[in-house]
Amino acid sequence: MEGLAVHGLHVAFGDREVLRGVELTVEMGSFVGLVGESGSGKSLTALTTLGLLPRGARVVGGSIFLDDEEIVGPGRDGTADVRGSGIAMIFQSPLAALNPLMRVGRQLERVLRRKGRTGKVEQRCIELFGAVGFQDPEQVVRLYPHELSGGMCQRVMIAMGIASEPRVLLADEPTSSLDVTVQADILDLLEELKARTGMGMLLISHDLSVVAERCSSISVMWQGSVVESGPTSDVLGSPRHPFTRQLVRDLSDESLAAQATHSDVTIVLNEASS
Amino acid sequence: MTALTGLGIDATQGGKPARPTASKAGRMAPVLHELRQHPNLAVGGTLLIVVTAIAIVGHIAPPHNPLAINPNDMTLAPSAAHWFGTDEYGRDVLSRVVYGLGIDLLIGAIVAGLALMIGSAFGLVTGYIGGWFDDIVMRVVDIVMSFPSFLLALTICVVLGNNARNVVIAVTIAYVPYMLRLTRSSVLTARSADYVLGARAVGASRGRVMALHVLPNAVGPTLVQATLMVGWAIFDVSGLSFLGVGIQPPSPELGVQVADGASYITSGQWWDSVFPGIAIVLTVLAVNFLGDYADEKLRGQRA
């Protein structure tokens, strides 16, 4: 299979298992949503994929494959090679995820140079900033993160994520700290990039409405394992697991409430629930 | 992937932020404003510039040879010919003070610089890598820090022998643990910052993460400490020399001069000790004012 596959992944802090047999696939070209409460192990799954486990955590079982090649498994960590080029990740708080002391252009250059590009990377930086929607990329490369808004920082992060042309992009709550209109722009951008490059994309979110709107398939995590997954319409149409049912019920409650008042309120309510 | 550039994505976030532009005439205005806002910068900066200028001039062209013994002019009181008087060997105290100022400033800066480099390098590595390496280094640091730094420097000096190089080594050894600890503690904060995780997620190597992302964001407090450390170092070096285990006479190092003149104070020849003493105080004061200013700026930034 082309793309990312997680099989029976177990991760533990000491004796305490926090991931209990996670099953997840992100095929090339697909847009997969991973939803669940905070603490259910969504982010940890993504970090494990990149070999960026927090201190004290270790993989105790299962494997992760990228294009059928095992990158994480018992006693195996080949993630240093995949990081950036095979899989890249973008984070929730874009401002905090950029080095405050380095111009954003230079941070992007670093990624490009690591990818083996030598010589004129400046032009490529400007191209990439253009590709993520900056109208004046020549100016943006010279700015520091604090001179950019949250949405602009997230665009920079996305540019850094796609710079090394990864097979799979993991987006961990990429829009949770942004306001609603910017949220939509960023998600549009991600979808557009996915369609254009054919990479696989995993959207991690606690907001089911966002995932329901954008993703072709959904995996639901609950207490360290994926309890339900499948095409979006199937999962939301006939949820089997009690937790999924709860999520879907909350979602429709909000929609109903919103319809009763004003359509604009839907978004606000969804926002409030997150 | 190159086709990305051809994407016609709407740019809703691409607004150009306004950047402040300074006219040529107004370029000094922010500096003056800063000086008014921070008297310790004004006082410390002026004092340090004056002291350094005197030290440089004193090194190039002292009024008299600071080492020339003159039996005809022993212990003369301050006069037009010898502004600060002469010592018990007839050497001109003014010449010795301005010459010694250079020695102390230079040694202070070297010690602080060495302690900064060694301490922050070890602090960075031990804080970032952690684990058993961190445990071992920190226990060694604990042991070294359990000695008062001046006593430690004194002991090392006695063991190594008295000369300028060994004084620098001794005081640096005594100071490195403070720098190491401080750097390590800020590295521990910076290490878990999102941008470090972000850099790792897009594939930056460990060395690159440490050098480009962790150190620049962690080194602030250490730099402030280093400026203050110039002052401590001048105090400790002159203190060691005063006690006779540091730089040796006939060097015109300030602590040596204070010690030389100390025995004559009771008989009324105060100038031989007091002038070099004042020189030490003013230099340390200048450096401390600047250190305080740097500290204020750093805290202001954090708040």
Short description:
Chain A is α/β, with parallel strands linked by helices.
What share of the residues of chain A does DSSP label as strand, in percent? 25-35%
The CATH architecture assignment of chain B turns out to be: Orthogonal Bundle
Helical content of chain A, roughly? 40-55%
Rg of chain A, Cα atoms, Å: 19 Å
Q: Look at the helices and sheets of chain A and give the structural class.
A: alpha/beta
The radius of gyration of chain B is 25 Å
The averaged pLDDT of chain B comes out at 85
Mean pLDDT of chain A: 84
Globally, the shape of chain A reads globular
In CATH, the homologous superfamily of the largest domain in chain A goes by the name P-loop containing nucleotide triphosphate hydrolases
What name does the CATH topology of the largest domain in chain A carry? Rossmann fold
CATH class of the largest domain in chain A: Alpha Beta
What does this structure look like?
Chain A has 274 residues and is α/β, with parallel strands linked by helices. Chain A is 41% helix and 27% strand. Chain A folds into two domains: 3-86 and 164-231, Rossmann fold (3-Layer(aba) Sandwich), CATH 3.40.50; 101-160. The longest helix of chain A has 20 residues, at 242-261. In chain A, 47% of the residues are buried. The mean pLDDT of chain A is 84. Chain B is built from eleven helices and no strands. Chain B has 303 residues and is mainly alpha-helical. Chain A binds chain B through residues 50, 52, 55, 83-85, 88-91, 93, 96-102, 107, 110-111, 114-115, 127-128, 130-136, 139-140, 143, 147-149, 151-152, 155, 157, 160-165, 181-182, 185, 188-189, 192-193, 196-197, and chain B through 1, 3-5, 7, 9-17, 19, 130, 193-195, 197-205, 208, 212-213, 216-217.
SSE layout and pairing:
The complex is a heterodimer of chains A (274) and B (303).
Chain A (H helix, E strand, L loop, with lengths): L2 E11 L2 E12 L3 E6 L5 H8 L7 E10 L2 E5 L2 E2 L1 H4 L4 E4 L13 H11 L7 H10 L5 H4 L9 H14 L4 E5 L7 H18 L2 E6 L2 H7 L2 E6 L2 E7 H6 L4 H20 L1 H11 L1
Chain B lengths: L28 H9 L1 H22 L32 H37 L1 H15 L3 H12 L3 H28 L2 H8 L4 H13 L1 H24 L10 H12 L5 H32 L1
